[in-house]
Amino acid sequence: MDPLTIQSLQSFIFGFKNSDIPDVKKIIKEYSIGGLILFAENIPDHKSVSQLIKEFQSFSKTPLFISLDQEGGRVRRIKKGITEMPDMSDLGEENNPNKVYNLSKNLAKDLKKIGFNLNYAPVLDVDFHVGSDSVIGKRSFGSEPKKVAELAWMYAKGMLDGGVIPVGKHFPGHGLTSKDSHNILPVIDTDIITLGQSLLPFKIAIENGIPALMLGHLNIKNYCDNDLPATLSKTVIEQIKKIFDFKGMVVSDDLPMKGITEKFTVPEASLLAYQAGCDLLMISGFLDDQVQAIERMISAVERGKVSKKRITDAFNRVINIKEKFNF
Fold first, then answer.
1. Which of 39, 60, 96, 253 has its CA 20 to 30 A from that of 228?
2. Is the pLDDT assigned to residue 195 strictly greater than 90?
3. Catalytic residue among 69, 127, 253, 279, which?
4. Options 45, 90, 133, 182, the catalytic residue
5. Any catalytic annotation for residue 217?
């Protein structure tokens, strides 16, 4: 493969079933993908997963992102033996920034010991639907944008100081809708003031230097290109990178979610997201989708369907963070 093709494949983050581990090792060795996401089924205990991570890293020419969702509360893949973060809503009610920072820093140290280097947290979503119809619910620090911004940044800072890359999520804010993007593409139809309030925690996190942000599969009415989810909208991603002057990685939410697959196959969506400006493409699901996404990317790069500028930008954003964290 030519250098540009190799660079483009650094943008893939794959999940896996335990039965697929031998195939995953082959993919890492042959294609040099960017990293992996692990779920509870992949983490029977600390010792065995730590050994597995070392094996994965040994197959890669470039250090891998080894990631997970360890927000706290109900969203955590490791249930025992590490620092426990409560639900963000409880931390929001307590409103103690130092406590959030210390919990997060200790959690990061625990994750780093096992071999993880990237955590899909903190949640930057403001909960505008407090109550039974809230989809973000207890995962949010609350309904006050300034408080969410402060506490979420303390969570991110704790991760950074503990040696783990935090990924703030889900731009432009999953709290703007009561629909779940796991099941449907939510359409956000709100006034500019509320949208601005939702964006405040993301803006503050960018100003403070957060290294990565995750896009939600959310359609902002009259703003996203062609009624697409933000994940596939060049206009939205340019807002983050150019207007907000974000220098880090833009990460897609999991591409096999229904918010995407209602209209696109996972391989189609992965290329569209990359072309639109996503720097990391998460595909947690099936091996077939992952292999087809790699093949589609290779074909698109070789046929000139992805600009050299886009490939170089994504690769530089990924590699700069890997080098900065020196793992």
1. 39
2. no
3. 253
4. 182
5. no
